[in-house]
Input
Amino acid sequence: MSNDKKMKIAVLFGGRSAEHEVSIRSARSIIGGLNKDEYEIVPIAISRKGVWLSPEDSLQALQCERVPELECGVWFTPGAGEEALRVRAGETMQSMHIDMIFPVLHGTFGEDGTIQGLCEMLNIPYVGAGVVGSALGMDKVLAKDVWAFNGIPVTPYVSALRTEWQSDQGAVMVRCKEKGLGWPRFVKPANAGSSVGISKAHNYAEFVEAMNLAAQYDRKILIEEAVESPREIEIGVIGNDEPECSVPGQICYDREFYDYEAKYLSGDDPIMHIPADLPKEMTEMIVDFAKRAWRALDLNGMGRVDFLLGNDGRLWLNEVNTLPGFTVISMFNRLWAGAGVSYSELLDRLIAYAQERYEIRQGLNVIH
Ligand SMILES: Nc1ncnc2c1ncn2[C@@H]1O[C@H](COP(=O)(O)OP(=O)(O)O)[C@@H](O)[C@H]1O
Ligand SMILES: [Mg+2]
Output
């Protein structure tokens, strides 16, 4: 890219996950927040069925609640780098130069390493975590395995495949008992988001129901001990090998846990305390765990690391989101605003981290 030209960024949004609508809202904010003196935006909308629309159709789709199911309008050529994008122009295809991809896609096919794999094959820099970090961050069981291995405190847990649950419930119960899991317990699909398919089970009957529900959403299920009435603390992390943390914030809501209803349906926005009211030592511990969690999963770009703080003062790492909600009112940006980083500066930095990571990887020796 020459210095006198604007950087051309393809912003991908919509997509095949349950968070399709949230993604459109995040993309609207991001496109609005990118400095137009520095960047030229190429919007690419992806429908719920997975069809990629032309930039022209995508611009319209950006104003919709849901991306319309139209004709495919873009194609990619593996390995072609900045010349990888072809755009429909009437009956023909035209090549369109792009310098970077910003996948503003939450959840499945966005945060799980799949879109990151495509960017790698195209050989284009992209914002956010790489293939491994995204995949580990998305899988709640694998993320906990890696964190526990690295000595980061996670609540006691057990995993089970849906096939095992369906054929031998007793074996799953024995494993929970061996691990000493008490009540109540949380049951979660390993790969999900927005609290979809998650339940809190207080007894055996509720547990069976919770397992059957989670099994509708994934072939792998996480069962973990509940932290009683925890404070939910979240912190933003950005960077590459030397990550930086925002201030921590606390989410408060008026329900038994932060479920789908509380997140999207209740009509009341959750109350966010930024910064969270915490003693200095606790904030330091949160920053330390967040950076260790980041390094353990080999993350890049950005992440929102979520904790549960028990009323006994114990801190548990709950999960990481590698593409957190990114509308102007989202927790992630507000945490960074609390740390003195404006929305558009945050975007500039994410783009710079993507470029840095790409250049470092380009300079590595490749073993053939
Ligand atoms: N072990 C736990 N103890 C207490 N509350 C929990 C626990 N795990 C999850 N929760 C509650 O459930 C919510 C959703 O769980 P989470 O693992 O964050 O899934 P999601 O990826 O859908 O946000 C949390 O925000 C919290 O309110
Ligand atoms: Mg969560």
In short: The CA atoms of residues 29 and 329 lie 9 Å apart. The mean pLDDT is 94. The first helix runs from residue 20 to 33.
